[in-house]
Amino acid sequence: MADIRPFMSIRPEKGKAAKIAALPYDVYNREEATKEVERHPQSFLSIDRAETQFPLSVDMYDDKVYERAHDTLWQWVEDGTFLTEDKKCYYLYELTMNGRVQTGVAACASIDDYENGVIKKHENIMCLGYSYWYLAGIILLLCFLYICFMKKYFGLHQST
Question: What is the pTM of this model?
Fold first, then answer.
């Protein structure tokens, strides 16, 4: 059985969620994402497509792109754009699109369970030289933020 645990999410401040919410990063090419970030600098694309803040000569996988995403996220936490929940929770969600219902849960999970196949892999992910713990942390952080947006726009329910 998988070892899963609740976590304290980071979420947009209530009045800023609509400005931060963005389509998924992979529906934009670099040019489209750059234009969207220029129009809406508080869009979450400023974090998950941080290469938009650099000239095209900077590779999207360059370390400074990841550093910019990190710095932007924590700047938004410091200035109150994002808030950290007061208690650990499991986050349940249900999405309905084109008549199809998808239900899920977001929680912290054991990296060992992931590596050993106890947790079904969403997709094959290359580590790109980062430790698995770093990779798991990034995935979980993006999951936390994604869940916060889903709560606002698709009626996500929080359970403790």
Answer: 0.65
Are 67 and 134 within 8 A, CB to CB? no
Q: Would you say how long the chain is, in residues?
A: 160
CA dist 114 and 2 (Å) reads 9
Mean pLDDT, range 79-90, rounded to an integer = 89
Tell which wins on pLDDT, 78 or 127: 78
Q: Can you tell me the distance from the alpha carbon of 54 to that of 94, in angstroms, rounded to the nearest whole number?
A: 36
Say how many CA atoms lie within 13 Å of 98 toward its Cβ.
0
pLDDT at position 71 is: 92
Structure tokens given for 106: 């977001």
Tell which residue, 78, 76, 56, 58, has the closest CA to residue 66: 58
Which helix (H) or strand (E) element contains residue 75? helix 63-78
Whole-number CA gyration radius for the chain: 16
Q: Which tens digits make up the pLDDT trace of 15-59?
A: 888 888 888 888 899 999 999 999 999 999 999 899 999 999 999
Phi, psi of 3 (to 5 degrees): -90, 105
| Selection from 59, 57, 53 nearest residue 34 by Cα | 53
133, 111 contact by CB (below 8 A): yes
